[in-house]
Amino acid sequence: MSALPGKRLSDSPSSRVDDMVELGVAGKALAIVELLVGRDYPVQMSEIVEVSGIPKPSAHRLINFLVECGYVERHPVLTGYIIGKNLSLLAYQVLANKTGGGSQRLHMERLVERVNETVNVGALIGNHVVYHDRVEASWPLGLHFEAGSKVPMHCTSIGKLMLALKPPGEVEMLLSKTELHRYTPRSKTQIPNLLAELERIRAQDFSIDNQEFMDGVCCIAVPLRTSDGRVFAGMALSAPEVRLPVFKLKKLLPELRRTADDYVMDLESYKN
């Protein structure tokens, strides 16, 4: 992005916002997006106006435009705005292109070649998991998910994992204001039961979906964790229960963790 004539964009977050606002409508929209990207909680309109310095009417118009484009979303439970599904996917696709056409995806493909089961990468956006990437096994599960697909958070391995790693107070509020639909007889729809499972997931640092979202399908997920300890997504291995029941899936946990570590290492090597 080019700045004003004779001016470079500052490395300071607050100065960068000021610089962007000076660039006009496009700069103001980017300032809002950068503000949301830098927060791990829903940002209220008052904070957007205060931090960006954009007049409230203009901020409202820009937010509504970004929501229509799918780059920003109103949080489905909490008050405020978060990054949208399309922005999350766009960021992933840009990074994949910059890392040699998605060299981190090769680690997913190699794992699929070794175990011949399906691997997904997804992140929690609002109260749903959004899939960023998926590599199918040679015998597909028959679940036609692709990048951008949404699945529930309370009965999927990635969803429960991401919930477990959030602050407990935020988790309870999310669950209390989200309809916990029963997708199968094994789906947990009672908050106390789900919270107890989230505690176990937090302690063991992996999550199991034992036919909770789809009958006959089991999944195991581990976090994608940066070198500074931030969890930004999860990686899951999915298989029909007749081939890989939970006790067999758990035996693949070390291999799934290695794949997740290699995946993050590739992303961070590009960043650095």
Number of strands: 8
CATH architecture of the largest domain: 2-Layer Sandwich
CATH topology of the largest domain: Beta-Lactamase
Ends distance:
20 Å
CATH class of the largest domain: Alpha Beta
| Strand order in the largest sheet | 5-4-3-8-7-6
Structural class: alpha+beta
Largest sheet: 6 strands, antiparallel
Number of helices: 11
Walkthrough of the structure:
The chain has 272 residues and is of the alpha+beta class. The chain has 11 helices and 8 strands. The chain has helices at 13-22, 25-37, 45-52, 56-69, 85-98, 103-115, 157-164, 168-176, 191-204, 246-251, 253-271; strands at 72-74, 81-83, 118-125, 128-135, 150-152, 207-210, 217-225, 231-240. A 6-stranded antiparallel beta sheet has the order 5-4-3-8-7-6, with helices on both faces. Strands 1-2 form a two-stranded antiparallel sheet. A hairpin with a 6-residue loop joins β1 (72-74) and β2.
Task: Summarize this structure briefly.
This protein has 272 residues and is α+β, with helices and mostly antiparallel strands. It is 47% helix and 18% strand. It contains eleven helices and eight strands.
Task: Compile the SSE list and pairings.
Elements: H1 13-22, H2 25-37, H3 45-52, H4 56-69, E1 72-74, E2 81-83, H5 85-98, H6 103-115, E3 118-125, E4 128-135, E5 150-152, H7 157-164, H8 168-176, H9 191-204, E6 207-210, E7 217-225, E8 231-240, H10 246-251, H11 253-271
Antiparallel strand pairs: 1-2, 3-4, 3-8, 4-5, 6-7, 7-8
Helix pairs in contact: 1-2, 2-4, 6-11, 7-9
